[in-house]
Design brief:
Helices cover about 25% and strands about 20% of the residues. The chain is globular. The chain has a single domain, classed as Purple Acid Phosphatase, chain A, domain 2 (4-Layer Sandwich). It has a 6-stranded mixed beta sheet, with helices on one face. Strands 6-7-8-9-11-10 form a 6-stranded mixed beta sheet, with no helix packed on it. α3 packs parallel to α5. It is built from 6 helices and 12 strands. The termini are far apart. Pfam families: Metallophos. It comes from Paenibacillus azoreducens.
Length: about 280
């Protein structure tokens, strides 16, 4: 091999090593994505309140020092499913949940990998940690005399089974601002209109491996459209006029601990009261 070829091979090898290092870094970081969301029906008492949202932990272990730095910074903690996966020891899950519950009142839904792993064991450690598991259930969140409705949508074991209808809003609560948490954003495909002011979802990992221009090539057409980030609709004939959806890239990883142009994330979501529209 000529010196020129050796030089080229060395450069390629160095670039490959740097790329792998970057992909490993993106998959292992603890990073918060801060967002503000303006909701028309949000009570004044909830202005400025914060939700800490984390989805798709899978087999990762949370950093105790990092999680302790979040204490006192969120009013509620919401877990968007895939809290574990097969072969993850429940003791690790228990430690993660204890750190999350220390931040604030915690609520969770199942993801598809939770159902395939150990749903009974997960339900037990959630309860032990003081986290509320929502399976097609509503709970009322209260703050300063105001109330909003939190709805947990249960994940079907198989997509072909479809989703149960969203739990009915209790009598007297129809006008409440509603936050829905569902693991898989494909839930919206089964709805003629979105029934919540704010929807929180995960599952997609944002594709995990993304390329500039082309995006996430391993997602199907629906998930390529709804891959990660914020989405908004306008449905003027509904009680919820402008539903909004956040799809998280997730904290954990599937199959390989590598990401590209799609770093792992958690979310701190600040709820804001949308200004009244002129009549």
């Amino acid at each position: 091999m000529t010196p020129a070829l050796l030089w080229s091979a060395g450069i390629l090898a160095a670039c490959f090593i740097l790329l792998l290092a970057r992909m490993s870094y993106e998959a292992r970081i603890h990073a918060i994505t801060d967002s503000e969301v303006f909701l028309e029906r949000l009570p004044e008492a909830f202005e400025g309140s914060r939700i800490f949202f984390i989805s798709d932990i899978h087999k990762r272990k949370l950093s105790r020092a990092f999680m302790e730095s979040l204490q006192g910074k969120a009013d509620w903690v919401i877990l968007g499913g895939d809290i574990m996966e097969q072969n993850v020891p429940l003791e690790r899950v228990r430690e993660n949940l204890a750190m999350l519950a220390a931040i604030g009142p915690a609520y969770a839904v199942y993801g598809n990998h939770d159902l395939k792993a150990d749903p009974e064991g997960l339900a037990r450690v959630l309860k032990e940690a003081g986290c509320t598991l929502l399976r097609n259930e509503n709970v009322v969140l209260k703050r300063g005399g105001g109330q909003i409705l939190l709805t947990g949508i249960d994940q079907p074991l198989h997509k072909r089974d479809g989703y149960a209808p969203p739990p009915r809003v209790p009598d007297g609560f129809a006008d409440l601002c509603r936050v829905a948490v569902v693991h898989d954003p494909a839930w919206i495909r089964f709805l003629p209109e979105k029934p919540a002011d704010l929807i929180l979802a995960g599952h997609t990992h944002g594709g995990q491996i993304r390329f500039p221009v082309f995006g996430a090539i391993r997602l199907n057409s629906f998930y390529r459209k709804y891959d990660c980030g914020w989405f908004k609709w306008y449905q003027p004939q509904s009680a919820v006029k402008t539903p909004q959806l956040l799809i998280s890239r997730g904290f954990g990883n599937r199959r390989v601990t590598l990401r590209l142009c799609c770093p792992a994330e958690m979310h701190m979501i600040r709820l804001r009261k949308a200004p009244a529209k002129p009549s």
